Amino acid sequence: MEKMTIRFKDYGTHLGTRFKGACVRVQIIEQFNRCGRVEFDFAEVEAVSSSFADECFAKLIFTYEWDKINHGTTFKNTSPYIRTIINNAYQERRRTRTHESVNRSLLVF
């Protein structure tokens, strides 16, 4: 299976806006659909905001199942700080999605 690499330095060294995150997410989806595997290279990226991480990565759960995201993506050159921001965004979005599913099922009764 072919793997595509997305180099985040091409988008800047400080990635902070939801708009930029959403734009990158569209490209991730295109590459993921085309190749099935995507590598995220954070070489030379100094900072990522929680807003960017949520838009770019965490909202992928609205397009793909978690297992597909988890097994079809890899991170390279990610600092501990950036890794923490991205992990927190995934965890929060997954937790929110679980609560939304529970709340919707309660509305049926």
SSE topology sketch:
Elements (H helix, E strand, L loop, with lengths): L2 E5 L6 E2 L2 H18 L1 E5 L5 E2 L1 H7 L9 H7 E4 L3 H28 L2
Parallel strand pairs: 1-3, 2-4, 3-5
The largest sheet, given as strand count, sense and whether it forms a barrel, is: 3 strands, parallel
Mean pLDDT: 89
Question: Given the structure, what is the number of helices?
Answer: 4
Low-confidence runs (pLDDT<50, min 5 residues)?
101-109
Assembly level: single chain
Rough outline? globular
**What Rg is obtained from the alpha carbons, in whole angstroms?**
15 Å
The termini sit apart by: 45 Å
Please bin the fraction of helical residues.
55-70%
- Tell me the number of strands: 5
Task: Give an account of the 3D structure.
With 109 residues, the protein is α/β, with parallel strands linked by helices. 55% of the residues lie in helices and 17% in strands. The protein has 4 helices and 5 strands. It has a 3-stranded parallel sheet. Strands 2-4 form a two-stranded parallel sheet. The relative contact order is 0.17. The C terminus is likely disordered.
Task: Give a brief outline of the structure.
With 109 residues, the protein is an alpha/beta fold. The chain has helices spanning 18-35, 50-56, 66-72, 80-107; strands spanning 3-7, 14-15, 37-41, 47-48, 73-76. The protein has a 3-stranded parallel sheet with strand order 1-3-5. Strands 2-4 form a two-stranded parallel ribbon.
Task: Please give a handful of descriptors for the protein shown.
109 residues; alpha/beta; two-stranded parallel sheet; 55% helix; globular
